[in-house]
Design goal:
The protein contains five helices and ten strands, in the order H-H-E-H-E-E-E-E-H-E-H-E-E-E-E. By secondary structure, it is α+β, with helices and mostly antiparallel strands. The chain folds into two domains: 133 residues, Nuclear Transport Factor 2, Chain: A, CATH 3.10.450.50; 114 residues, Nuclear Transport Factor 2, Chain: A (Roll). The longest helix is centred in the first third of the chain and has 18 residues. The two termini are 18 Å apart.
Length: 288
């Protein structure tokens, strides 16, 4: 994330936040399972565009662990990137937000230093944001089926099926993407009824098969090695994984929509993990 807020405003908000954090420590611990943090995250991300300093107060100034490897740790690192954007250039449109306990996942259309699609994950502790992960990819043209990286279903439903859907999607990623058990692929879908938002792949199993074939012909390999986190709310499940794409270490963020026990829709972003010498914090890309 990169924010456009004046240094003076930032320092004022940080000072106020420190005071509030001290007061909050004397209150009873909030139940993260019942507190809806999604509006706070929507406001925080929108402040990238508006420059509103108020949402910075949602961050714990004494503890903010940063996993964007291009940003320094803590509020000091956060403050250092506030002025990075040219004035008036940022645009932010968050279209999906889901929450799993203290974790909030946002799916956003960004414009800073060019158009990008991003997933952000925030972790709350005692009502404040204390940790942040993200995965950004350059915005691409619609895929062979005409879908963009962001359009499609947005409504969160089937809350009673959250855990079952998380288990289904974890199994899919483990079976198919990590272990390559392609004989199990068809069992995760309702025939060819599958909406795809990856910019290189068309709808259905047929579209997936064609894309994998084209990649193989071009000598491009994609391998998932580790599932780091599975988060979900109702019919939406996010999986954060690590692997290799085209020979480079890569972070994979995959968002799935599940319908009637089958995978029905998919969005994703891929981001190359920079060399350790280029990191601006020591927290790593994952660290869940």
């Amino acid at each position: 994330m990169k924010f456009k807020i004046s240094n003076a405003a930032f320092l004022s908000i940080a000072a106020i936040s420190v005071a509030l954090a001290g007061c909050a420590s004397n209150t009873s611990k909030e139940n993260a399972m019942s507190t809806n943090y999604k509006p706070q995250i929507t406001e925080l991300l929108k402040s990238i565009e508006t420059g509103d300093a108020k949402p910075v107060g949602y961050i714990n100034p004494a503890k903010y662990i940063q996993h964007n490897l291009a940003v320094g740790d803590g509020l000091a690192g956060f403050g250092a990137v506030l002025q990075a954007l040219p004035k008036g250039s940022a645009k932010v449109n968050t279209v999906r937000v889901l929450q799993d306990g203290p974790f909030v996942v946002a799916h956003t259309d960004y414009n800073f230093f060019g158009p990008k699609i991003g997933f952000d994950i925030f972790r709350f502790e005692e009502g404040k944001v204390v940790e942040h992960w993200d995965n950004l990819q350059e915005k691409a043209a619609p895929n062979p089926s005409g879908h963009t990286m962001l359009d499609g279903a947005t409504a969160v439903t089937d809350l009673d099926k959250t855990e079952a859907n998380k288990a289904l999607v974890r199994s899919f990623v483990d079976d198919i993407l990590v272990n390559g058990k392609l004989e199990k692929l068809a069992g995760y879908y309702d025939g060819d009824n599958y909406v795809q938002h990856n910019p290189q792949i068309g709808d259905g199993l047929s579209g997936l098969g064609k894309a994998l074939g084209d990649m193989a012909k071009a000598g491009i390999t994609m391998k998932y090695s580790t599932i780091h986190k599975v988060l979900g709310e109702g019919n939406f499940v996010m999986v954060v994984s690590e692997g290799v794409f085209a020979g480079k270490p890569t972070s994979f963020y995959d968002l799935f929509r599940v319908q009637s026990g089958k995978i029905a829709e998919h969005w994703d972003t891929m981001e190359t993990i920079p060399a350790r010498a280029e990191w601006k914090n020591s927290n790593g890309k994952f660290g869940f």
